[in-house]
Amino acid sequence: LKMFWFYLSVHLLMEAWLCHSIKVPTTSSQQSFKTDLFNFYHSLILADGKETTIHLLKDIPKRYYFVLEEGRALAPFSITVTPCDVPIEWSILVHKASASFPGKTTQGDYDTQEVSKSQKAPSMVSTIFNYKGNSVETYMGISSHSTLYMLEFLSTERDTHITVYLTTDTTSGHLYPELPMDPRIDVIGIGHTTVTLTWKHSPSLLQHREDIQYCLLVNEKHNYKSLCAAETAVRSSGMKLPPALILSLSPYLLEPQQVVILSNSELSIINKASSGEVRQICMGTKNTYTVPNLSPSTQYYFDVFVINLLTNASAAYTGTFARTLEEPKPKVAELKDEKVIQVVLDGKKQKSYSLQYQAMHKKIQFTFQMCHGQVRVHITKNGRTVASENISGLRYFSLKGKLLDTYSVQLSSTEKSNSSVKVQVSSRLHKPLLPLLPESLKIKSFSKVRTCNSVTIAWLGTQEESKYCVYKKRIEEDQVWMELQSADRCSGPESRPKSEKVLCKYFYNINFQRAVTTETIKGLDVGTLYLFDVYLFEPSGIPISYHSKVVKTRKKC
């Protein structure tokens, strides 16, 4: 019955307040009066000790009320408002029976705020606090009489939502985790793809270590002043965020554009969107973290949130930003006419190598011969791309341009193991731009004519007279795979012992379909494995190595 009379008196008091503040409507103000009545009857009593989410429509104010009961001497209270998107305006109005209302606010850095002094007025209604901005703002006050308060919220930019936390119990802990005296995030290391951050521990961690954790947000747009503002931005970018994504480590379904990485007790969520990449990393209670896999020469914004896992409440450190270092430019080597150079690339570090050539003729030709692995070749002429592809064998590029055109060649490994490639550029016009090459560089053996002491092999030739040299090497059964994998396709006969040389011969046929030559190698051991190599010497000056062939002589004849 007592509570009934209390809420009835609150209702009557609000009606009197509204009638006094709105006054009697005239014909010209009937529409405004109806709007005020609509807002009044849709206002709510603000819950004490509970965080309330409030949705605001653009340009439509929303009001909430709360009452400090009579009988509590110097009753303290605090109100914390967290904008979750755009800046908002909010005020605290009071209908009081006394003119004494001491109060204070926590200070923001950049947003405007105003606390008006209490003053006596016939209406007994005054505004004690007014704020505009998007920072988390807290008003702390003390009331010595039974008082009715009204909170009014307004968004003038667009529809949005906020959270409001009212408490009259300021002695038994905090809903929000505490920030240290210095809430800044320090950047202690910057690399090409990494940034190392550190921050001071939250005092709440000392009392509730098991319930507190840190989460980091990384993005390329700007800093966020609250966790709900960050989550709103992620959702508005078109990415669907599971509820309480950062706060809850329970299983959930991921969207196709989300990647989750779990390692070393850390949870990382990477959201992909057209507006850029957003990363969310929760690292428990560690206060130093190195963010990996960033892009070189890119500015990133970093926000750290300390979160109470029991209440889902959070507090934001002062965000920071850093720009990763520029990727080191690869060394540029000059290419000279007809000179062959060999480039070795480290696949593990994905290093690249640059070559440059200034043309002395209108027509030039680049020749690439893979020795090991595979590389990506990118050729530009005066800054414009003219060729780009992966090379795994022998490849020629014939290009036309102007005198003194500058050509740049970028080589990068496509494999984790080391790669090696030979490069040559030529502008000599008396040589053919495309040397005649066999259709296949495979060596074939004939099993039917194989004996205990000899084998017969065959290979394709060209339509111009060229020199071919045959080499053999005795190997064991367990060496076959290693020999074939480690074969250097760029190595010529000069790297082979003279004892392995079998013969050299000249051969050609104008009819390419008949450009086939055979050779029988005699004097071999019974039941023995041999590795055969054929080298072609053609006008370009680069020895062309055929694919190695393993053949075993017969055990019985």
Description:
With 557 residues, the chain is mainly β. Strands 14, 15, 16, 17, 19, 20 and 21 form a 7-stranded antiparallel beta sheet that branches. The protein starts with a helix and ends in a 5-residue tail after the last strand. It has 4 domains: 33-97 and 124-167, Jelly Rolls (Sandwich); 175-239 and 276-328, Immunoglobulin-like, CATH 2.60.40; 332-426, Jelly Rolls, CATH 2.60.120.380; 443-552, Immunoglobulin-like (Sandwich). Helices cover 10% and strands 44% of the residues.
Beta-strand portion reads: 35-45%
Largest sheet: 7 strands, antiparallel
CATH class bucket of the largest domain: Mainly Beta
User: Percent range for helical residues?
Assistant: under 10%
SSE-based structural type: mainly beta
What value does the Rg take, in angstroms? 40 Å
CATH architectural name of the largest domain: Sandwich
**Number of individual domains:** 4
Query: How many DSSP helices?
Result: 5
> How far apart, in Å, are the first and last alpha carbons?
117 Å
Summarize the structure.
Helix content is 10%, strand content 44%.
Give the topology.
Layout: H1 2-22, H2 30-41, E1 44-45, E2 50-56, E3 62-68, E4 75-83, E5 88-95, E6 103-105, E7 112-114, E8 125-133, E9 137-143, E10 147-154, E11 160-167, E12 185-190, E13 195-199, H3 204-207, E14 212-219, H4 227-236, E15 258-263, E16 266-273, E17 276-282, E18 288-291, E19 299-308, E20 314-316, E21 320-323, E22 332-334, E23 340-345, E24 352-358, E25 363-372, E26 375-381, E27 384-391, E28 394-400, E29 406-413, E30 419-426, E31 444-445, E32 455-460, E33 466-475, H5 480-485, E34 501-507, E35 516-521, E36 529-537, E37 543-545, E38 549-552
Parallel strand pairs: 1-3, 22-24
Antiparallel strand pairs: 2-11, 3-10, 4-9, 4-11, 5-8, 5-10, 6-9, 7-8, 12-13, 13-18, 14-17, 14-19, 15-16, 16-17, 19-20, 19-21, 23-30, 24-29, 25-28, 25-30, 26-27, 26-29, 31-32, 32-35, 33-34, 33-36, 36-37, 36-38
